[in-house]
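Key idea: predict the complex, not the pieces.
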Amino acid sequence: MKKHIPHIIFALMLSSAGCKSDSEFLNQTPTNILTIEQAFKDPAQVESILANLYNRQLDFSGLDNGWASFADFSESFPSENGAAGIVQRDSWGFGEWGTWDYTYIRELNLFIERCTAATTLSEDSKRRFLAEARFLRANYYFEMTKRMGGVPLILKSMLYDFGGDPTYLQFPRAKEAEMYDFVISEAEAIKGDLPVAPNQKARATMAAALAMEARAALYAGSIAKYGFRTPQVTLPGEEVGIPAAKANGYYTTALTAAREIIEGKAGNYSLYNSKPDLAENFANIFLEKNNNPESIWVEDFKLKSGRVHGFTVSNQPRYGAEEEEGGRLNPSLNLVEAFEKLDNTFAPLPVTDGSGNPIYYDNLLDIFADRDARLAGTVITPGSAFKGRNVDIWAGYLLSDGGILTGDDRGAQKPLPGTTSPAVQVVGFDGPINGKEFTAQTGFYIRKYLDPSPGAGSRGTNSEVPFIRYRYAEVLLNAAEAAFELGQPAVAAGYMNEVRARAGLTIPLTAAEITFDRIVHERRVELAFEGHILFDMKRWRLAHIVWDGTRMTVADLTSNIGKATKRNTQPYGLWPYKYYNPGNPNNGKWVFRIVLPALVTQANRFRLGNYYSFIDDNIRSNNPKIVRQPNQ
Amino acid sequence: MNFKRHYIALLMIAAAFGACRKDNYDPPASDLTGRVVYKGEPVNVEYNQVSYQLYQYGFGRLGPIEGFFTQEGGYSMKLFDGEYKFIIPNGQGPFVWRQTPTGAPDTVVINVNGKTDLDVEVTPYYMIRTPEFKSAGGKVSATFRIDKIITDAAAKDIERVSLYINKTTFVSGANNIAVTDLNGADITDPANVALEVDVPTIAPAQSYVYARIGLKISGVEDRLFSPIVKVSL
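Result:
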């Protein structure tokens, strides 16, 4: 009997466990997947879903999109050999800058539907979550509209019934104006549900919604107003192009929305003003994370969390860098000379005097004297410093006979003329040397977003400087532009002078001095490298004029500074040389030369077909209702 | 051991003979060539800027085969035999391409069967005729006549004419070493226009340049050009 006990136990176990009904046996609650009810049960859980949706927002330039997303448009030269294509192509592809992420749209729609249906969330948190998701959806549709024009406006999740006929899932493109109307109406609808919280930077707030609304309305208004410049860039169904009659309505909306922020209805925002040195103050807008009254909505990063970016690693001054790289973004002379003089006038950097003789400078910085403080806040010029260390940018010795003594490696050494030794340094450790990547091939490095904190320039640590998507200064400039277009130049001058005063331009502009050129100029210098230039030039319909594919001469470069239609097709550089002529009073002084970096072989050409990015043939053949973009 | 080696050799021979027999298509072999012409006269355009599209129906998803006209207005494609539909998209080229009543570009049906040559007829806004180039004293000068072809309501003004010179045979606004512009408003006699451009120092030195005249029509993106001419200095 004893030996049968295991058998009996086995039989008992079989009968107790084996005879479960099939459904009971197979229906196991998975331990690694949350059901929809579980996921939308508790606010912390919903936040983590929302965090994923926040992360999928699209930026034109993003600190985590790679440094090259800030390059291009002749505002800078790419000092990395693999990226030389940016200055060596004769036109942009029609597909460039396109986006078509309906997966993201679908997941936002699903989030909104599921969160609406959730039963255990408190009404307050539900309202905020829903408003945030709608904000993200509107902002992405805005981003799509900027690039593609009208797209199918899908506001609920769709499901295929496997019936063999998908036509009920095919939607045509909305009108471009309807897209902007959607963004504006969403912002109005959700602004009350979003918190008034100026210290909340990474999540949507009331101010973020209003800033989005102001920008979107301004874009729509300028497309309506300036569409006459490109009558070809339209479609008969208005998927592209906005009727001119709508311009004033949009400008009014933009001004109203911007004013709500300016008047403090969305919390206290103001221009960042906490450093006595104006250039440092300007650079700090982008570095200061907490207690920054200027930033409204940012893409945030955090050290040691995995969410960091290598912008500083890629672009720090190469000499003395924490890593064997850097120096990739070299702002062009085109941009540098656009920063105006403190007396509100435009002038090229004085390289030669009236009769064409070179000007000798005692100090490298002298040539940049008396300019807009934003220049030094945006660009590292020769003779200036980063992290307390001077950059070493100089191209070589200019000899008395006009010859040049230089080297082809960073900090190369050669004996001076008339001597055989000792060899002395004949070129800066930061270049400029043509074709030598990571050196300042235009003579400049970028300063915006460069993180001076220790370790930020090393690959192992990286940087947590945030990327500002909406900031107060842009809101002011949006308000100024809308007011100007509505025929209120005095109002426009007021808003613009606030931004300019912070940059050290203390002589206020009068109402009569506010012109379209001024508006274009102010945005270019204030918002350089913030992902605006392309979309600004597109909405003003200036892109095909400014980037017209024609090579620039030095005369082109140095004339008409501050004009909105000034050609800007090739990034020029400004190279300092040390004058070597012992016995001459100018010995050891600096002269500057305007050069076109040798790798720049082509000129930027913005074709009419570039105004709206190409819609892929696969998309159009899956959905024949989608019409093609014009001029492609 | 020996046996095994034979076995491997046998397998390799079998693979070499058996594998790639019938599973590949022949490559396309028929050439479709032609030019874009106005009454038989080629219309010269800029390299890589004016595009055309060929569609072939009946093979699932529809997408164009896209190509660009050469500087002389020529095009060429290597294709399979069959029926294709040819269009020039709206807004391309310094000319007018026939449109359907709804405003879509009209199609030309092309039956490709072996080597096919087909010139496509367009109506340019202007034509540059009898261009003559001369060089003297470090300058290249050109004289030419501008004929207005479209004179009805669709007519457009001349924005600018330009004389371009370059070291290579690619000559255009994007590829040149020197250029002289003349605004359309400053043209007194379209039947007799003269332009002159200084030849800059060319390094390495060469004793010739390529020259052509470009005509920018206001409201039209692509320029119209004259044929490229080699000018000895």
